[in-house]
Design brief:
The protein is an alpha/beta fold. It is 30% helix and 24% strand. The strands form 6 sheets. Strands 1, 2, 3, 4, 5, 6 and 7 form a 7-stranded mixed beta sheet that branches. Helix 5 runs parallel beside helix 17 and helix 9 packs across helix 11.
Length: 589
């Protein structure tokens, strides 16, 4: 184009056209708003689900559904003006943030527009997300509680007594039982509590945060602090970039107290049944040896996507091995291993972390690598991928979350951009990657050269975000052996090519069976068998069965890293609130 467009005019004209199309529900008006190859990602607002729809055949039915939702009030975001994005394309791209209202509630939205040959601007990508249900807005910000008694309350119940009663669910039932008091379970409970949903969180550990405290000493979070804020309560500006595990545990405990979440530590599910006729669970809880029965309408499993059931490969000869054999889930730091030979099987995050912890404890460590691993430096990820959106000078977290969600995972430009970033990070890490290669460590750029995020979304593993172990490997401080394990011997391991590795201890960092199998153990076969596949991507690029309906009524799964849990637990909470209030969300084929 000969001159820069007037962004406000471009944005407003397109927004007016979108408003007409949505109000009329006219799928034939697709070309008045969307480019031929457009994507519309919707998080509950128009589909009642997490959907990524591509091109007219998929988007047309959503436009028709919009016509039933009484769309009004389309307005550009007053704080964030339309922006001309820089990029590799010769064609200009304008990004706009805006809001609208439907009969269900408030909707936030992002669109990216490009011009056609005739100068008309059309959306190549649209995100809509249900931000709040009408009449059931969260009690935060301007709607926060006053903290004082009502004027007509003559004998008010003081805060401490009220909290004690709420915590015990004395005489009342929870609407929702959340199993697992990690970041996913607590973050979801915070959202639900803000919506007035009575929520009980149970965890088998003795204290909130013990799921972090009880792990090996050297563990730190692999994602930086700016990406890891929890809902309603961000980390303070003095917080370290990579959070030590005990500090994370303490923060979760403080978070639960500050947000007045109802958590019962030292509690496990003893048995459960679901009454489909009245949509109610009966859950028998073992609370420190005492049985308590609760009857929630919804149960959420939030015990970690990897699950709690170890994945242990069948290897001949475990009965003859004279040393210590344990799974990574059982591993904890032990200074008594100093000077001993330890073999760690597996080269994902856990395998590297445990090898580094063992090295710091004085052990002689060898990693057994069974297949190539994607490796990227933790600081490299921050500099290249995260700093613009989750960094010291980045936009507010809620804006970065919103814009980040606007990129459908299967969109060609999004995948091209991710490949470009992965290649750039590899060049930045070239020295350490070459050092790994020299030691026989096999690495690649991930499936289809899409790096760690794609591996996380599709396999929940197969990568290492380096926080120190790669340098130890490159320097020869931690040994590496590539190959398949044939059998255990009395004194170690034998590989398929005949090589033998002596070991006093073998740690199997071979993963877990997944949260679906945890559901089977905790809630039984009847629940697990009815659930669809959990994790991985469906044919629209959306994650299967997490933060969305599981195919078993009243049962949900929450998980993901801190960023994803923060973003998507809100939508899970809104679905549960809508169900409790008998609000029918829309549906799109």
């Amino acid at each position: 184009m000969a001159s820069e467009p007037d962004l406000s005019v471009v944005a407003q004209q397109w927004l007016d056209a979108l408003g007409r199309t949505l109000r009329e529900g006219d799928a034939d008006s697709y070309t008045a708003v969307f480019a031929a190859d457009a994507w519309w990602r919707d998080l509950l607002a128009f589909s009642g689900d997490l959907r990524s729809l591509h091109a007219v055949d998929a988007i047309g039915p959503m436009i028709a559904t919009a016509g039933t939702l009484e769309v009004t009030g389309l307005e550009l975001d007053s704080q964030i003006p339309p922006t001309l994005l820089s990029g590799d394309s010769d064609q200009p791209v304008v990004q706009i943030l805006f809001g609208l209202t439907t009969r269900l509630g408030q909707v936030r939205a992002v669109a990216r527009l490009t011009p056609r040959e005739d100068g008309a601007w059309r959306a190549t990508a649209l995100l809509t997300e249900l931000d709040a249900l009408k009449g059931h807005e969260p009690a935060s910000g301007r709607r926060r509680p006053t903290g004082t008694p009502a004027p007509d309350e003559r004998a008010p119940e003081h805060w401490g007594a009220k909290r004690a009663r709420e915590l015990e669910f004395d005489g009342i039932e929870p609407d929702v039982l959340v199993i697992g008091a990690g970041h996913s379970g607590l973050g979801l409970a915070a959202h639900l509590t803000s919506l007035g949903v009575r929520t009980l969180v149970v965890d088998r550990n003795g204290r909130v945060g013990d799921n972090w405290r009880n792990r090996y000493d050297s563990l730190v979070l692999h994602d930086p602090v700016w990406a890891n804020h929890l809902p309603f309560m961000p980390f303070p500006p003095t917080w370290p970039v990579f959070t030590p595990k005990d500090k994370m545990g303490d923060w979760l405990e403080l978070y639960a107290q500050a947000l007045e979440l109802n958590v019962w530590p030292g509690t496990r599910v003893a048995s459960s049944t679901y009454d489909a006729a009245d949509g109610t669970w009966e859950i028998h809880l073992d609370r420190g040896g005492q049985t308590r029965t609760v009857r929630p309408r919804h149960v959420v499993l939030a015990t970690g996507l990897s699950g709690t059931e170890p994945l242990v490969p069948e290897i001949e000869g475990t009965d003859v091995f004279r040393g210590e054999l344990l799974h990574s889930g059982q591993y904890s730091t032990d200074r008594a291993r100093a000077g001993t030979s330890v073999v760690v099987v597996g080269t994902g995050n856990s395998g590297h972390d445990i090898a580094q912890d063992l090295y710091n404890s004085g052990a002689n460590v060898t990693l057994v690598q069974r297949g190539p691993t994607y490796v990227v430096g933790g600081t490299t990820v921050v500099d290249v991928m995260l700093e613009p959106v989750y960094g010291e000078e980045s936009p507010p977290t809620e804006i970065s979350d919103l814009v980040g969600a606007s990129f459908p995972r299967l969109e060609a430009s999004a995948q091209t951009g991710l490949r470009t970033a992965v290649a750039l990070m590899a060049e930045r890490d070239r020295a350490i990657l070459d050092g790994l290669t020299a030691r026989g460590f096999r690495h690649h750029l991930g499936d289809d050269d899409l790096g760690a995020m794609n591996l996380f979304l599709t396999r929940n593993g197969g990568y290492y975000i380096d926080v120190g172990a790669s340098r130890l490997i490159a320097d020869g401080e931690i040994g590496v052996v590539a190959g398949a394990i044939e059998r255990f011997t009395p004194s170690g391991l034998e590989l398929s090519d005949g090589r033998r590795i002596p070991a006093d201890t073998v740690v199997l960092a071979t993963g877990f069976r997944g949260i679906h199998e945890t559901a089977r153990r905790v809630l039984g076969d009847a629940v697990a068998d009815k659930c669809g596949p959990v994790w991985g991507l469906d044919d629209e690029g959306e994650i299967r069965s997490v933060w969305r309906r599981s195919r078993h009524d009243g049962f949900w799964i929450s998980g993901g890293n801190l960023t994803m849990a923060r973003v998507y637990n809100k939508y899970l909470a809104l679905q549960i609130k809508a169900d409790l209030e008998q609000i029918e969300l829309p549906s799109v084929p």
